[in-house]
Each structure stands twice: as structure tokens, then as C-alpha cells.
């Protein structure tokens, strides 16, 4: 006598299995969870970065880089960590074989997005905690607005990663496409130059991109204001557009 497996139970089983595999990838865990905080620690060890800067409105460089490292974890998760895993499953025929079982291939994609999203959020909280405890960076004064901007930024990063996974046929192609998009997204997030320190013309262009808008939304919430509706709207529109494109082009085999 056989017992049918419910979709919910199958989904939970997939999540547990993917979590075990995820824990066994120390390199991915480091780049998503450890590297952004390590970068923050390195930057904070530079004495001049702990001094107020006129071009940052009296903020210190380390103050401006906490939101940057928060976004860095999301970019790493969405573009570098997740796409090679998903495309590797498709390349090896795992998703095709799963389509003949009670476990739908979509459960794997959902588990991967959930795990990488949770890791990115965990890294963001770690950056905030280290910034506060080690470098006396104030915590966001508008907590609810900051949380909303964080969630929208994670959604945009995962949607972008899903699109890369949809377009790439192999894990090597996913790494190549992800790297091609990775560096422009780093620039828009302010890794090399914080968005608030950019010239106005460049800042307006960057703010039309998902992580430029996210950087400004996080900055506004950190300063105590509700994130601008324009920045939140840019994030929501990018997330919707990327999700639709990923859904349109994604193939299970």
C-alpha cells in the first residue's frame, strides 16, 4: 500500500534537502554571509573613513558604507550564488526527472530563492550589528521603512538571479552572465562611490536602477525619513518586470 505525498510535505522535504546542500557550500556561504561584513571591517579599519566628510553631509565614510554592504550581500546571493546552482540542476537533468515525481521542479526554485534570500537578509542584519557595535554607526531611525526597502531589494535581487538562471543554459554560462551584470550592479549600489556622493546627473541615472534606488531608500530610512515613493516604486517595478521576464523564459529542461 502506498501513501500519497502531499505537495506541502514534498515542498518541505525539498527545502530541508536544499538546506543541507546549501550548508555544505562554504564558499557560497562566505561570499553571501561573510564577505560583506569583512569588507565593512576592512573599510572601518581605515582611520580617515571614521572621520566626518563634508561631501557626505557630515557623515563618515563608514556610515555611508553600511547600506552598501547590506546591498552587496543581496547582489552576491542573487547573481553569483543562486544562478549556477539552478542552472546546474537543469543541466544535469534534475529538474526534468523531478517533473515525473510528486515534487515539482518549482519547489527547488522556490527553496533556492528562499535560502538565498534568507542568507542575504541574515548578512544584512550582521552588517548592521557590526556597524553599530564596532564602528558606532547608528541603527536605522525609520525601522519599518528600512525593513520594507530591504525586502524589496531582496526581491529584486532574487528576481534578477531568476532571470539569469532562465537565460543561461549551463552553470558556466550562468556564472558568466551573472558576472557581466554583477559589476554594474555593484557600481549602482555605491560600492566604489556611495550614491549620495555621486554627481547629480550620475545619481539620477543610478537611482533608476534597482540597487541605486535601494541604496537611496535605505539611506533615507537610516536618516529617519520614510523611503521615497519613487525609490520604492523603482524597486517594485524592477522586481515585477524581472519576475515576468524570468517566468517567460525559464525552462525546466
From TrEMBL:
State the UniProt keywords alphabetically: Antibiotic resistance, Cell membrane, Membrane, Transmembrane, Transmembrane helix, Transport
Give me any GO biological process, just one. Answer: response to antibiotic
Stored InterPro entries: ABC-2_transporter, ABC2_TM, ABC2_TM_bact-type, ABC_2_transport
Q: Using the record's annotation, list all stretches that form the ABC transmembrane type-2 domain.
A: 27-253
Key word Transmembrane present in the record? yes
Compartments in which it is found: Cell membrane; Membrane
One GO MF term attached to the UniProt entry = ABC-type transporter activity
- GO cellular component labels: ATP-binding cassette (ABC) transporter complex
Q: Which PANTHER family match?
A: DOXORUBICIN RESISTANCE ABC TRANSPORTER PERMEASE PROTEIN DRRC-RELATED, TRANSPORT PERMEASE PROTEIN
Task: Give the similarity note.
Answer: Belongs to the ABC-2 integral membrane protein family.
Q: What is this protein called?
A: Transport permease protein
| Organism (species) | Streptomyces spectabilis
Amino acid at each position: 500500500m502506498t501513501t500519497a505525498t502531499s505537495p506541502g510535505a514534498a515542498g518541505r522535504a525539498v527545502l530541508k534537502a536544499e538546506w543541507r546542500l546549501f550548508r555544505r557550500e562554504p564558499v557560497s556561504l562566505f561570499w553571501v554571509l561573510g564577505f560583506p561584513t569583512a569588507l565593512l571591517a576592512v573599510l572601518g579599519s581605515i582611520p580617515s573613513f571614521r572621520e566626518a566628510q563634508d561631501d557626505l553631509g557630515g557623515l563618515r565614510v563608514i556610515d555611508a558604507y553600511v547600506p552598501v554592504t547590506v546591498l552587496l550581500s543581496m547582489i552576491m546571493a542573487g547573481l553569483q550564488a543562486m544562478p549556477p546552482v539552478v542552472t546546474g540542476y537543469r543541466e544535469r537533468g534534475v529538474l526534468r526527472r523531478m517533473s515525473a515525481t510528486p515534487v515539482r521542479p518549482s519547489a527547488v526554485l522556490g527553496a533556492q530563492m528562499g535560502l538565498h534570500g534568507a542568507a542575504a537578509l541574515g548578512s544584512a542584519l550582521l552588517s548592521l550589528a557590526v556597524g553599530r557595535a564596532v564602528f558606532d554607526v547608528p541603527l536605522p531611525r525609520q525601522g519599518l521603512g528600512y525593513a520594507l526597502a530591504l525586502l524589496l531589494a531582496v526581491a529584486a535581487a532574487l528576481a534578477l538571479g531568476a532571470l539569469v538562471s532562465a537565460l543561461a543554459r549551463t552553470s558556466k554560462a550562468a556564472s558568466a552572465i551573472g558576472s557581466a551584470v554583477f559589476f554594474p550592479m555593484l557600481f549602482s549600489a555605491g560600492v566604489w562611490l556611495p550614491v549620495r556622493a555621486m554627481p547629480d546627473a550620475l545619481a539620477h541615472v543610478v537611482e533608476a536602477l534597482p540597487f541605486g534606488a535601494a541604496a537611496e531608500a535605505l539611506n533615507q530610512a537610516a536618516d529617519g525619513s520614510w523611503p521615497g515613493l519613487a525609490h520604492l516604486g523603482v524597486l517594485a517595478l524592477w522586481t515585477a518586470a524581472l519576475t515576468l521576464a524570468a517566468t517567460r523564459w525559464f525552462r525546466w529542461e
